[in-house]
Amino acid sequence: MIDIIFYSIAMGTAYALMASGFNLLFGVGRVVNLAFGAFMALTAYVYSSLSTYAPPALAAFGAIALMCAVGTLGWSLLHVLRENEMLMVVVTLAIALLIEGGLLYAYGPYQRVVPPLVSGAVWIIPLQWIATVVAGVAVITLYYIIVNRTRIGKSMIATAENPELALMLGIRVDRILYFTSFLSSLFATTASVMISPMLTVTPHVAWLFLTVVLAVSILGGIGNVIGSIVAGYILSFAERFSAYYVDPHVQAFIPVMLVILILVVRPRGLLGKREERWA
């Protein structure tokens, strides 16, 4: 039971990171990024490939740095589609399919071995689980400090509320969008590197990542980072305990069941605003 609780905490931290990155990009830039899961899958493959030539820690740093650069540039370009949400959905879905096809071509449909960042265990708790929690808390704390203690964080809030007014006040909205894309990429890449060693990784894992991201985002409230953190742990514990007490196969249905439940009971999510404000 103790190992299930610690595993749920580790997975919940990764879920929170994943969904927070998605919601941050949506909340500030109004980008509905359905390629988010594929981006995480690509990060896992980059990390796995680099780890064959370098120690896991160095490979993880290299994968995060490289994919953050790719994500910052790529997601920033999607801001031009913010006025056409349907086109944005189609474009990001096409990007996801393109990434999945590229991974299938390069690596095949086989399971990829992703090494843990740290090996060993403390009692019955693998160090990878502990590292996941530590890394997640560190990134979320960094985000909290940036948003609440820095000028750029205040500018992010202003841009999320009304980008046109923020521009009139002298805020460089384009730079804020680039920085937001960087933070979103940092959340996604960190979660991918930490969670991938605990999963069966194939090119199709992108859709598992996307399912979790959407479920946690809807459960916590679209665009709400704090809601994502809370919902990430709720989903993780629900999955693990349902697999332990009911049936392992039930775990796959938990995200969908929670989404249906929250849409019926509280459509805006646990911590979502009553009405969304579109800039």
Tally of helical runs? 11
Beginning-to-end CA distance, first to last residue: 47 Å
Strand order of the largest sheet: 1-2
Q: How many strands?
A: 2
Strand content: under 5%
- In sequence order, what are the helices and strands, one letter per element? HHHHEEHHHHHHH
How would you sum up the major sheet? 2 strands, antiparallel
The unreliable regions are: none
Helix content: over 70%
Report the structural category.
mainly alpha
Report the average pLDDT across residues: 89
Rg: 18 Å
Form type: globular
Classify the oligomer.
Answer: single chain
Task: Describe this entry's structure for a reader.
The chain is mainly alpha-helical. The protein contains eleven helices and two strands, in the order H-H-H-H-E-E-H-H-H-H-H-H-H. The protein has helices at 2-29, 36-50, 56-77, 85-107, 127-149, 151-161, 163-168, 173-195, 205-220, 225-245, 254-265, and strands spanning 121-122, 125-126. Strands 1-2 form a two-stranded antiparallel sheet. Helix 1 (2-29) packs antiparallel against helix 10, helix 2 packs parallel to helix 4 and helix 6 (151-161) crosses helix 8 (173-195). The longest helix is centred in the N-terminal third of the chain and has 28 residues, at 2-29. It is globular and about 55 Å long. The model has no long low-confidence stretch (mean pLDDT 89).
